[in-house]
Amino acid sequence: MTMTSPTQQARPGAAARNEDRAVLDVRGLWKVFGPRPDRVVGTPLAELSRSELRARTGCVTAVRDVSFTVRPQEVFVVMGLSGSGKSTLVRCLTRLVEPTAGEVLFDGEDIRKAGDRQLRELRRHRFAMVFQNFGLLPHRRVLDNVAYGLEIRGMRKEARYERAREMVELVGLSGSENSYPDQLSGGMQQRVGLARALAVDPDVLFFDEPFSALDPLIRRDMQNEVIRLHREVGKTMIFITHDLSEALKLGDRILIMRDGELVQMGTPDEVVGAPVDDYVREFVSDVPRSNVLTTRWIMRPPRPDEPLDGPEAGPDVVVRDVVHTVLRATRPVKVVEGGELLGVVTAEEVLGVLAEPSPHGTSGGSAGSPPDATSGESAEPSPEGASAGSADSSSEGASGQPAEPSPDATSGGPGGPGEPGGSAEFPRSAGSPGSGGQG
Ligand SMILES: Nc1ncnc2c1ncn2[C@@H]1O[C@H](COP(=O)(O)OP(=O)(O)OP(=O)(O)O)[C@@H](O)[C@H]1O
Ligand SMILES: [Mg+2]
């Protein structure tokens, strides 16, 4: 993600350059909850709809044959309705939830084959997690919360406090080191969560709807904060959200889920410019396309008779930011990357985007429908602490952090918070009969 300003949707350079490499390579991943889940994958039972399978066997397919790769330094967003399997998918990647089938290759090695010890190492050193409900230890000061993962690792007190202080400063909380979590606002608490995750210098940061409990303005601040931190520390990030505007703002690529399945995966301009079906089309319909589609997306090959001495633009500039250049130019604007001419953009392409009708009122806003994903959470014996073996294990989550106190318990009040001004948020549960655990 190399956005030049938080509001610009310029496409990434870093992730694009890493296209052939994978930090995480997920292949044919399944997670079936319920009795004897093994009998489902690879049998006719797997073909049943969620509700049929549940009725017949008591099992829920939370993740269904999902494959994708995450590239170094990429911000990879997972989106979908409540109950579509986002949290389960992401938890399978660190084995906070045990996958039922498939492979999860991290730096080429299958995490599913890791032993307890290796897994603990991975969670303490390579991965870190930021939760929606912050997961802070209430009786510890900010500094101790931030240093927690380092303490678990056995780092000396002085060294870990030094590192923790740096992180507190990085997230803009200097001065609050000695406060307790309940003395901080929600936004500040989540900054502590961010600092704690960054303190362990992980390879991959996982975020499970970290900002959905925050009010819209604070939430926007925090999104900008993530963008800034990503620019500064360049970590690979996997980010779950309900909020399309958040996904578009943060994501290099977005994976959209429905009923456990991958529906579409692509860059923001692919998702907005070419939604694969009505499900995706409906929730991108309110997005101002000129804020998302890039010159790369709208360019075309030059015609033989066209002059090629016009102004230049990069391929990752969004239409909104190139409109004036294009409309003022008397020649086609050349889309150039690394000295190479990729295509041209003229008023015709730009106006095509601006004039595109953008149907309203089709997405968002199904307040009142509670999230359904919590219904079965307790069916599996506390996955969070399962493989940790230290004295702190009962409270240890990924990377030695305190485990999320109650996973998903707060995933939004009715409807969940949204941004003002028609932010397209996935309607929670509504309109998706098969979307989850309400049986
Ligand atoms: N431990 C569990 N036992 C049984 N079923 C579960 C368990 N965890 C999740 N599920 C079911 O798996 C499906 C996917 O749940 P998951 O929590 O991954 O969805 P989600 O997309 O993260 O939803 P939300 O947006 O509400 O957080 C749901 O139908 C849920 O009820
Ligand atoms: Mg979830």
TrEMBL record:
One of its GO terms (molecular function) is ATP binding. The keyword Methyltransferase does not apply. It comes from the Bacteria. Residues 375-400 have a biased composition (Low complexity). It holds the Pfam family ABC_tran. Transmembrane segments: none annotated. CDD domains: ABC_Pro_Gly_Betaine (cd03294). Keywords: ATP-binding, Nucleotide-binding, Transport. PANTHER family: GLYCINE BETAINE/PROLINE BETAINE TRANSPORT SYSTEM ATP-BINDING PROTEIN PROV (PTHR43869), GLYCINE BETAINE_PROLINE BETAINE TRANSPORT SYSTEM ATP-BINDING PROTEIN PROV (PTHR43869:SF1). This is Glycine betaine/L-proline ABC transporter ATP-binding protein. It comes from Streptosporangium vulgare.
